[in-house]
Amino acid sequence: MLIYLRVLKESFFFAINALVNNKLRTILSLLGVTIGIFSIIAVLAAVDSLEREIKGSLSSLDNSTMIIMRFSFGPTEIPQWKREQFPDVSYEEYEYLSRTMPDLEAASFSLNVPSESITYEGRSASNVGIGAVSHEYYNIEALQLEEGRFYNEAEDVSGAPVLVLGHDVAENLFEGSDPLGKRVRLYGRKFTVIGVLEKQGGSMFGGSHDTNVFLPVNVVRRIYGSNNRSSFPQIIIKPEDDVDNAEFMAILTQQLRNFRGLRPDDVNNFFVNQLQGFADFIDNITGQMNLIGLVISGFSLLVGGFGIANIMFVSVKERTNLIGIQKSLGAKNKFILFQFLFEAIILAVIGGLIGLFLVWVIAQLASQFTGDFDFVLSPWNMFIGTAVSAVIGLISGIVPAISASKLDPVEAIRTGM
């Protein structure tokens, strides 16, 4: 065992010495692997960061949550012309499902409407997201309040002029003073501030409520009317824990079909979108993006591998005389084999580490310039980069190393002379 360790050690130092003595060739060989590893890890890091950002935007909602609307989260077999004829879900359907659905933890009616500006005594906050939701939404998303309270059922049903501010909106309007009880102007009307949400932090996909306000959905319904296609409603359903989601969705679908009077042979004119299904759809898309990126990047890495193999053949040719002398002095084939194999692997790993470093630098710079979006180089991706580099070095160096180890010492010395 000690003999093998000694052979490995001496082979390793011979490889290091060969790389140091041929700096230009080493640098040129590194470039191919560096570019290949950089391409692969950059793709993996970008897709992982994108997936993390999207799922982080949805993390406040339970994956079992279902959203009923006339749009589908994912691909569907129903043609577009038919989907465009689907009616919006109604407030009456929300009330019906709230009364009749078994195993229902909470249901909320929501209107998606354009952003607005809010003013208070000469100060204003623009591009504010409007969360027009019924009072149950507070429990569905588990919103966290910094101060004050969320509106209750009575205020929701009556459409009371009250609202809850996101953290950044409150800071812009009140600049540190107490906003509770103050009256702000929105939609040309006065609303009383009854609560402020805790700060969540930014998200490029709209998952943060810092720049939003929440107000009773019935207020917005009166402003926009029931048939305004610029806003579309949705019903958010959260089943109780430990409920069979597939069975719950089947009952939910049948209940809504019954309410709409659909015949057995009629297709559903609505979509029940489950967040788990959306998460699976995101996984599928990111998986395809990873695959495409890896295939494209693999060509760069292949070129790098060929570059290392070429350099190793040249190195064997240059050191034929030295190999003959080593073997004539008693060096075993294993020693020669490991010497060149280590040289190829070290070359590839160093190139991979440089590629990883470049990805890390660019990720840090990109995170600074994109603000809310964070590019993350995970330890797993770093491990993949290092492992792939070592494998490329092993594959690229195995044939030259074997050819070097099998050289006849007499012929090798004669060739070198």
From TrEMBL:
Q: Where in the cell is it found?
A: Cell membrane
The name on file for this protein is: ABC transporter permease
Q: Name one GO molecular function term.
A: transmembrane transporter activity
Family membership: Belongs to the ABC-4 integral membrane protein family.
- Main location group: membrane
Membrane-crossing ranges are 27-47, 291-314, 335-362, 382-404
Organism, as annotated: Salinimicrobium marinum
One Pfam match, given by its short name, reads FtsX
Indicate yes or no for the key word Nucleotide-binding. Answer: no
ABC3 transporter permease C-terminal domain mapped to chain residues = 295-409
- Asked if the Swiss-Prot or TrEMBL record annotates the protein with the keyword Transmembrane helix, the reply is yes
Q: Where is the MacB-like periplasmic core domain?
A: 26-254
Q: Which PANTHER family match?
A: ABC TRANSPORTER PERMEASE YTRF, MEMBRANE COMPONENT OF TRANSPORTER-RELATED
Ranked from the top, the taxonomy reads: Bacteria, Pseudomonadati, Bacteroidota, Flavobacteriia, Flavobacteriales
GO CC annotations, alphabetized: plasma membrane
